[in-house]
């Protein structure tokens, strides 16, 4: 097929569909319990140099416990999909975990402002960057989930976003119109936080799914953290609620309040006070180091982090906000 | 002294563009306030869509994130990013509101970087997010932004999001969907559209208290002028009371 134009951005993962098939041919289909701690899951499935994807939407339904554990275990030189990545991005930048980055949305925390530390890291020259958009990364995962090497889309053409991407412009064999061909991403590992899962990894998600259903299928290894474990009988009672099947999943970690300080649909709202503290303390690198020691490096797990930031009393207030008993910004 | 501020005027001006039964893709902040105002004031059947998957919510208060739970409050569907962007790409989204650090005379937007070295930029911004996608697909892209000569730049350091690209028929030739593009630019001083042939930005209305000279002095490139430039209508009492009492009682957006 003739390539009409192509961006100069790097493609950090191999878009070869047959190589991906060869991997998935060997991936276990066994119905076996996969329950383990977040620490074990990260030890087992997240390695230096891997390409990582984090589910959710920045500070909504994110696997915070996995992000913190990646810092505690000191992972480096990873590739990362900065796909609507906000608080998760802030955490990973704090550990300088990745040095190859596909950008859709980074550095900012939406209406809350920009992360000073993430900006410092991105302006340091330490990170190799390729530019995309939210939808572009969504379709790159969609292609991978479907087992094809690219997906045609009608965005980015004519802009610098295309120039600095790894996309190629091709012509439709039926109509002759132009498409941006977006190469598939099969991440080495992804982590997704869900509402409910059984011990085998069958998952239920409430609220928006963002790109997680495709990410779950595209990822070679998948770590699930869940608000609560449920019985396999409950999954089988009504399979229409299952949105990720167990054969995609490698690890299941029960982490109630696992998206904290992020929002979890139908469970608890984001901790805006704590997120403001993150942004504020990042202005001073020395203070930020102490803050990270307190909140991440010295914590045994996610629950110790929550304890240090208000514990159950704080969580109950965030539940009130989620259910509109109080306002989000109160 | 007028009994409203420029942010309130911009939001009311933007809200009037959203007719009943239309669909709009919005982000947080002022665009969301405009969509909420339109829904409460004159467009009860306005379909509000958020890129993360929130579809047609009855937004109870201003969301903080385009993916937070307020974006699916009493919505018809909690979907995903492909659902929203595919709807836009097949032509179902009428409007979107965007912004950026820079905008040029063709309505191209920069929200990626300042400085020439892409791998080591002087200032790094968030990047496209869903902006390039919405601007590529939605029929009419609008921008709400304060006006100053740095922001309204002769040339963007980087084009994140397509406007009319290099003007003329350049957008049509680019491969982006035909017939979609920048529609109106709403600032604290004026409302601009785009001259149909050259696709250059053109003043069509001036806000009360400003002159054509003010608008040009606060723009880094030469603006075209419509044959008839009207004075933009100030917010009505009805609009202001909805905006102040129901939408933004804590003045998170209108207090800026």
CATH topology of chain B, which one?
Glutaconate Coenzyme A-transferase
User: What is the mean pLDDT of chain A?
Assistant: 97
Distance between the termini of chain A: 56 Å
Percentage of helical residues of chain A? 25-40%
Q: Going by CATH, what is the homologous superfamily of chain A?
A: Glutaconate Coenzyme A-transferase
Q: How much of the sequence of chain A is in beta strands? A: 15-25%
CATH architectural arrangement of chain B? 3-Layer(aba) Sandwich
Shape of chain B: globular
Q: Could you tell me which chain pair has the largest interface and how many residues each side has?
A: A-B, 70 and 63 residues
Task: Report the principal-axis shape of chain A.
Answer: globular
- Low-pLDDT sequence parts of chain A: none
Describe the overall structure:
The complex is a heterodimer of chains A (330) and B (256). Chain A starts with a strand and ends in an 8-residue tail after the last helix. Chain A has 330 residues and is α/β, with parallel strands linked by helices. The longest helix of chain A has 13 residues, at 134-146. The model of chain A has no long low-confidence stretch (mean pLDDT 97). In chain A, helix 2 crosses helix 3 (64-72) and helix 6 packs across helix 8 (212-218). In chain A, the strands form two sheets. In chain A, strands 2, 3, 4, 5, 9, 10, 11 and 12 form an eight-stranded mixed β-sheet that branches. Chain A has a four-stranded antiparallel β-sheet with strand order 1-7-8-6, covered by helices on one side. In chain A, 35% of the residues lie in helices and 18% in strands. Chain A has a single domain, classed as Glutaconate Coenzyme A-transferase, CATH 3.40.1080.10. Chain A has helices at 17-26, 38-45, 64-72, 87-94, 116-122, 134-146, 160-163, 212-218, 232-237, 272-281, 285-297, 302-308, 311-322, and strands at residues 5-6, 51-54, 78-82, 98-103, 128-131, 150-153, 168-171, 178-183, 189-197, 203-204, 221-229, 251-254. Chain A is globular, with a radius of gyration of 20 Å. Chain A has 13 helices and twelve strands. In chain A, strand 9 (189-197) and strand 10 form a beta hairpin. Chain B is α/β, with parallel strands linked by helices and 256 residues long. Chain B has one domain (6-247): Glutaconate Coenzyme A-transferase, CATH 3.40.1080.10. Chain B contains seven helices and 14 strands. In chain B, helix 2 links the parallel strand 1 (23-25) and strand 2. Chain B is globular. Classes of the chains: A alpha/beta (330), B alpha/beta (256). At the A-B interface, strand 5, helix 6, strand 8 and helix 8 of A face helix 3, strand 9, helix 4 and helix 5 of B.
């Amino acid at each position: 097929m003739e390539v009409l134009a192509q961006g100069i951005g790097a493609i950090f993962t191999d878009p070869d569909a047959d190589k991906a098939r060869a991997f998935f041919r060997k991936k276990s289909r066994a119905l076996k319990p996969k329950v383990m701690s977040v620490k074990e899951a990260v030890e087992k499935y997240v390695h230096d140099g891997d390409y990582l994807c984090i589910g959710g939407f920045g500070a909504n339904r994110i696997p915070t416990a996995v992000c913190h554990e990646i810092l505690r275990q000191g992972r480096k030189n990873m590739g990362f999909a900065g796909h609507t990545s906000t608080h998760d991005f802030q955490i990973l930048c704090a550990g300088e975990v990745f040095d190859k980055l596909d950008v859709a949305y980074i550095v900012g925390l939406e209406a809350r402002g920009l992360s000073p530390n993430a900006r410092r890291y991105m302006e340091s020259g330490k990170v190799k960057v390729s530019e995309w958009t939210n939808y572009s990364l969504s379709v790159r995962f969609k292609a991978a989930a479907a087992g094809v090497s690219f997906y045609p889309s009608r965005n980015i053409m004519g802009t610098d976003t295309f120039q600095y991407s790894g996309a190629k412009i091709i012509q439709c064999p039926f109509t002759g119109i132009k498409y941006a061909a977006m190469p598939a991403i099969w991440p080495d590992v992804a982590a997704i936080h869900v509402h409910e899962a059984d011990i085998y990894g069958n998952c239920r998600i409430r609220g928006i799914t963002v790109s997680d259903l495709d990410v779950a299928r595209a990822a070679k290894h998948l770590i699930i953290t869940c608000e609560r474990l449920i019985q396999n009988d409950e999954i089988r009672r009504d399979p229409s609620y299952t949105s990720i099947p167990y054969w995609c999943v490698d690890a299941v970690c029960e982490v109630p309040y696992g998206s904290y300080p992020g929002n979890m649909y139908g469970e608890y709202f984001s901790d805006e006070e704590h997120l403001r503290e993150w942004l504020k303390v990042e202005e001073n690198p020395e203070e930020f180091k102490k803050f990270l020691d307190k909140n991440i490096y010295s914590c045994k797990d996610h629950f110790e982090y929550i304890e240090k930031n208000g514990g159950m009393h704080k969580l109950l207030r965030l539940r009130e906000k989620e259910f509109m008993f109080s306002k989000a910004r109160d | 002294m007028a009994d409203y501020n420029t942010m309130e005027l911009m939001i009311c001006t933007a809200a009037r563009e959203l007719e009943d039964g239309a669909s709009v893709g919005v982000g947080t902040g002022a665009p969301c306030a405009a969509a909420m105002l339109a829904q409460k004031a004159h467009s009860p059947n306005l379909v509000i869509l958020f890129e993360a998957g929130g579809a047609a919510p009855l937004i109870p208060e201003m969301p903080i994130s385009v993916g937070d739970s307020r974006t699916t409050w009493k919505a018809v569907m909690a979907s995903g990013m492909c659902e929203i962007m595919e709807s836009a790409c097949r032509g179902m989204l009428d409007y979107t509101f965007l912004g950026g650090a820079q905008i040029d005379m063709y309505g191209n937007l920069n929200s990626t970087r300042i400085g020439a070295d892409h791998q080591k930029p002087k200032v790094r911004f968030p990047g496209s997010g869903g902006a390039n996608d919405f601007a590529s697909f939605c029929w009419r892209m609008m921008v709400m932004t304060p006006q100053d000569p740095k922001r309204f730049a002769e040339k963007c350091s980087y084009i994140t999001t397509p406007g009319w690209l290099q003007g003329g028929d350049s957008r049509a030739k680019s491969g982006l969907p035909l017939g979609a593009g920048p529609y109106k630019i709403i600032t604290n001083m004026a409302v601009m559209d785009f001259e149909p042939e050259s696709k250059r930005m053109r003043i069509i209305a001036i806000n009360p208290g400003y002159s054509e000279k003010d608008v040009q002095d606060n723009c880094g490139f030469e603006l075209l002028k419509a044959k008839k430039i009207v004075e933009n209508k100030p917010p009505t009492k009805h609009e202001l009371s909805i905006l102040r009492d129901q939408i933004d009682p804590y003045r998170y957006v209108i207090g800026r």
